[in-house]
Design brief:
four-stranded antiparallel sheet, globular, Jelly Rolls
């Protein structure tokens, strides 16, 4: 069992995140990277930009990570024993790429209510200050804040959602080794910088693990049942993939990504490339 300790839960409640948590071996993380890069090789551009969502629906190795018992034990400590998988995202920053993630709160635009959910950020490669690791503002999860919609160049968020005037002197770096994860609250203010290293930085984000009492109020999402029982049945249930890039998996993934696009751009008169 990898459930969080009482002290770790207190830390999560106070700061809005907990890290690092050891989940995968380095070899397991490497095998996941190889499968991601195999998909990129076989289907160029398929998982670039807005294609980065829900790759676990066509990748057995990423699906296995999503349902990893060590992650689910930790998640259960936060949201309870009945756990659904709502969607996933790949955040890949290539060497010396100018891509960054502006400071934002996930809960502002994902449409999952109430906020009984948590995001797992899985390091497929090492993630550190040099290659653009996540940055958290501890304690900023108490309230939702105003966001500007910038659509600015290099910003890896859908609309370039940005919270202004974040106090950099309070920001904490979330450095992870390949195979480690962080867990963060829906309302924590976070972002990340550019990759200044000579290798790509790959983060696989399970965004998010939700309690079965959570609704999608801006559209609809399919879900997988990761643990427990779904008595609410607010969402259509998606089967786990068994085969790499299967026809069925590709069709389901396209449908789910179409749903996500409507959610992420709800109320916007402009569509970005992410």
């Amino acid at each position: 069992m990898s459930q969080l300790t009482a002290d770790e839960i207190k830390q999560y409640d106070k700061n809005g995140y907990i890290a690092p948590i050891n989940v995968l071996t380095k070899e397991e993380a490497l095998q996941a990277r190889k499968e991601i890069e195999l998909i990129e090789k076989r289907m160029p551009d398929e998982i670039d930009n807005s294609g980065r969502y829900n790759v676990h629906l066509i990748s057995p190795k990423l699906d296995k990570i999503v349902h990893n018992s060590n992650i689910l034990d930790s998640v259960e400590s936060i949201i309870g024993k009945n756990i659904l998988v709502c969607s996933t995202t790949l955040f890949i920053k290539n060497a010396y790429q100018e891509g960054f993630v502006s400071y934002h709160q996930d809960a502002k635009y994902i449409g999952l209510e109430p906020h009984n959910w948590v995001t797992a950020w899985v390091a497929i490669t090492d993630s550190n200050e040099i290659n653009g690791c996540m940055r958290m503002w501890p304690g900023s999860h108490k309230d939702l804040r105003e966001h500007n919609q910038k659509f600015n160049e290099g910003n890896l968020l859908t609309r370039g959602q940005t919270i202004e005037n974040v106090p950099e002197d309070q920001i904490k770096l979330i450095e992870l080794k390949a195979g480690q994860i962080s867990l963060h609250h829906p309302r924590i203010v976070h972002g990340s910088g550019v990759n200044k290293s000579d290798d790509r930085r790959i983060g696989f984000v399970i965004q998010s693990y939700i309690g079965t009492n959570v609704k999608q109020v801006l559209g609809k999402n399919g879900v997988q049942i990761a643990r427990g029982v779904d008595r609410f049945k607010y969402h259509e249930v998606i089967n786990r993939t068994k085969f790499l890039m299967s026809e069925e998996g590709m069709l389901i993934r396209k449908r789910e990504n179409d749903h996500l696009k409507k959610i992420f751009y709800n109320g916007s008169n402009k569509i970005g490339k992410f």
